[in-house]
Specification:
Largest sheet: 8 strands, mixed
CATH class of the largest domain: Alpha Beta
Order of helices and strands: EEHEEHHEHEHEEHEEEEEHEEEEHEEEHH
Number of strands: 20
Shape: globular
Number of helices: 10
Number of domains: 2
Strand content: 25-35%
Structural class: alpha/beta
Helix content: 25-40%
CATH architecture of the largest domain: 3-Layer(bba) Sandwich
Bound molecules: flavin-adenine dinucleotide
Strand order of the largest sheet: 6-7-5-15-16-17-14-18
Length: 392
């Protein structure tokens, strides 16, 4: 038994229970402990931390968004990634190789140009490039049919596994306990307050529960009687054999026309493309049928890919909300219940700042570093959805 003194048969007590030891749960637990919280317990159904979507993502980190809240979250997160190796005392393979957004239509190019001033005003370094400049700087890109491009200079990618492990290790050093291989089965409340969490390993009495359950966050919220509109959607990644025809680091490159994106991964090319027509499901089988379309888009935009063979592929789950923005913070009507979920494909890049903001919400009643009111769960009932245009 790894918990505190047993207040009854099969019952233990932890003031704060974080559900899910993905990168978001680990970051939240670390920030809680760093801010002085004691008795933080993370409950995870798998045997290892970071084995959900955290283990399956592309590691992309960018501030080139269209909404003020996403830009602000990313600016803070990138500052945190920049000093993370020192803070956590471990490598995270962070490469600020950039994000290159390629516009084909005039409307896409207008969009990139109109968003740049707002991004720059928030501190994001963005370069607008003519197709000839793209051809010169990034010769692996087919540019004949492009109208222009935007380069997020300090965007890039890191290793999600290393980041999650780093938060986990530091959180443990700061006194956080992790209970792995333990499924959360129920969340009990009394008088409008969270009271306990029932798990496959006993019941934990608590005052605060944070739902960091990734694609399962809707199911976990439902255990507390909360309707969280965040749905799992399959996303696949394919990685080529080591491929030296495109040397060095390249930006994470996105063809806005098709949604195809790629970056370098250990000397190979990693690529993905969302199948927007696919309905919500927990399916994590690689969609090889859809791959035919992916490779067509890939070869059109990055012709050299035709010479590379596919080495491996995997599928994981996005957790997507109706406006593709996360839900963050307290849930009105159930005191002590907080959500940090529904990241819609951006949960890794935002995990440092989300952990910090969630810890602030637990300890101070609301986030302090940023105004997170646009991300409140109440926006869905109130029809205050936020529209993000730079989606992958
Ligand atoms: C193919 C792909 C590419 C992606 N690319 C990017 C990218 O480039 N950049 C980016 O920022 N994001 C990307 N994402 C999204 C990113 O992976 C997620 O947003 C992020 O990992 C969310 O982290 P999390 O900790 O919330 O979820 P998870 O890592 O899924 O962690 C949730 C944890 O909760 C546990 N859990 C669930 N239910 C229970 C329960 N009842 N009891 C106990 N434990 C439970 C799970 O086992 C899991 O370990 C990508 C996702 C995919 C699938």
């Amino acid at each position: 038994m790894r918990r505190e003194a047993d207040p009854g048969v099969g019952r233990t007590r932890s003031p704060v229970v974080v559900i899910g030891a993905g990168v978001v749960g680990c970051s939240t637990a670390y920030h809680l402990a760093r801010m002085g919280a004691t008795g933080v317990l993370v409950v995870e159904k798998e045997k290892f931390v970071g084995s959900g979507s955290t283990a399956l993502n592309a590691g992309g980190i960018r501030a080139t968004f269209s909404t003020d809240i996403n830009i602000a979250l990313s600016v803070e997160a990138i500052r945190m990634f920049e000093r993370m190796e020192e803070e956590l005392g471990c490598p995270i393979e962070y490469h600020q190789a950039g994000y290159l957004w390629l516009a084909r239509s005039a409307a896409q190019w207008d969009g990139l140009r109109s968003r740049a001033p707002r991004q720059r005003a928030a501190g994001v370094e963005v370069e607008l490039l003519q197709p000839s400049e793209v051809a010169e700087r990034f010769p692996f890109v087919r540019t004949e049919d492009l109208s222009g491009a935007a380069l997020g200079v300090r965007d890039g990618y890191a290793d999600p596994h290393m980041v999650a492990q780093g938060y986990w290790r530091r959180a443990r050093e700061l006194g956080v306990r992790f209970e792995l291989d333990t499924l959360v089965l129920g969340i009990e409340s009394e008088g409008g307050r969270v009271k306990s969490v029932r798990t496959s390993n006993g019941t934990i009495e608590c005052e605060v529960v944070v739902d960091c359950a990734g694609p399962f966050a809707r199911q976990v919220a439902a255990l507390a009687g909360i309707d969280l509109p965040a749905h799992p959607v399959r996303r696949c990644l394919w990685v080529t054999h080591p491929f030296d025809r495109i040397p060095g680091l390249i930006p994470l490159t996105i063809d806005m026309d098709t949604g195809f994106y790629c970056r370098k991964e250990s000397g190979a090319i990693m690529m993905g493309l969302a199948n927007e027509a696919e309905p919500s499901s927990f399916n994590t089988q690689v969609d090889w049928e859809f791959f035919e379309h992916v490779i067509e888009c890939a070869v059109h935009r990055v012709p050299l890919v035709a010479e590379a063979g596919i080495h491996k592929a995997w599928a994981g789950l996005y957790s997507v909300t109706p406006d593709r923005h996360m839900v963050l913070g307290r849930v009105p009507g159930l005191e002590g219940f907080l959500v940090a979920a529904g990241f819609s494909g951006h949960g890794f890049m935002h995990s440092p700042i989300v952990g910090k903001l969630t810890a602030e919400a637990v300890l101070h009643g609301a986030p302090r570093t940023l105004d997170c009111s646009p991300l409140a769960i109440t926006r869905f009932q109130q029809g205050e959805l936020i529209h993000e245009e730079n989606v992958i």
